[in-house]
Amino acid sequence: MTQSTLHHPLTIRPGTDADVPTMARIMSEVQPAHPWTPETLAYELKVLREHPRQPHDAHWIAEQDGEAVAVASVLQFPGMFHPDRYHAELMVRPAARGHGVGTRLAAVLEEHLRARGAQEVLAGAYENQPEALDFLTRRGFTEAMRYYDNVLDLSHFDPASWEGHGVLPEGVRLVSLAALEQELGQEAARRAFHAGFAEAREDVPRTGEASPLTFEDFQKRFDSPLVFSQGILLAVTDAGEVVGLSELWRAEADPARLNTGLTGTRRAWRRRGLALALKLAAIGVAREAGAREVWTGNATTNAPMLALNDRLGFRPRPAFIEFRWGGV
């Protein structure tokens, strides 16, 4: 695209499911550290729309000369749900910036949010995107929380230096979800996993209270095209209780990268070395799988996990800053 095309009229229309490939492409271009495939985006939207809380989602495409130059969305996320809280996303292709495309799309989002009576809106950008940060600030958003991308280059990880570390407490063993499903059956293994996961996630730093996670909702995670059950590691007691966990998920469009989901322990089992043992085991699985990197995301307020990741060799990338307008 040349800059001259940006003088042609801009049209903004509602997005449809047919636009998912276009949305995934623009989202990946704007945030290359977290690319999307059409399959993963379609799956995430399907899960959102099937959720019993009936969260809202709406999307728009900005086009110039028949070419999509920006996308925008208004969403409600079931995991941190309030009927008057919304998440807004607006992404303009680099070649189309500086010509008012974002301003036009923002006006559409603001009108939509006003019509729905939104009391709180969350949006964000990376700290190395000053134009986006200024765009939000000028619209009355203020910083709410920061999250680091922490990345471990597995070529620099020396497993020999960690021999003797990560010893599990007596009466606890480490097993993958895939192996536990073979032992107990799929539903029993997943119910045990859900119980530990649901408690651990309640204490993950976020900008709002975590919504309860039912087993039925939890089950849908395993339909994701990115699931990697051998990389979901569980600390299980002799009584069959999952007291700690660390997840690895496949990365969109990058077979040499694995993403960490939740790493956490149940409250009664914290400060007993479970997190270190689980992270070391996950790194071992990643190396065996031939991964080049392991990525994880941590709130900058989560000092214990940041310290653990730093010990293991994870290094921070630019932080994602979540902004808030209003409040519920």
UniProtKB/TrEMBL annotation:
* Entries under Pfam families matching the protein: Acetyltransf_1 (PF00583)
User: SUPFAM superfamilies under this entry?
Assistant: Acyl-CoA N-acyltransferases (Nat) (SSF55729)
User: Could you name the domain of life of the organism this protein comes from?
Assistant: Bacteria
What is the enzyme's main class? transferase
> Where's the N-acetyltransferase domain?
10-159, 183-328
For whether the record's keyword set contains Iron-sulfur, the answer is: no
Q: Which UniProt keywords apply?
A: Acyltransferase, Transferase
Which InterPro entries does UniProt cross-reference here? Acyl_CoA_acyltransferase, Bact_Acetyltransf, GNAT_dom
Gene Ontology MF terms in the entry: acyltransferase activity
Cross-referenced PANTHER family:
AMINOALKYLPHOSPHONATE N-ACETYLTRANSFERASE-RELATED-RELATED, GCN5-RELATED N-ACETYLTRANSFERASE
Q: What is this protein called?
A: GNAT family N-acetyltransferase
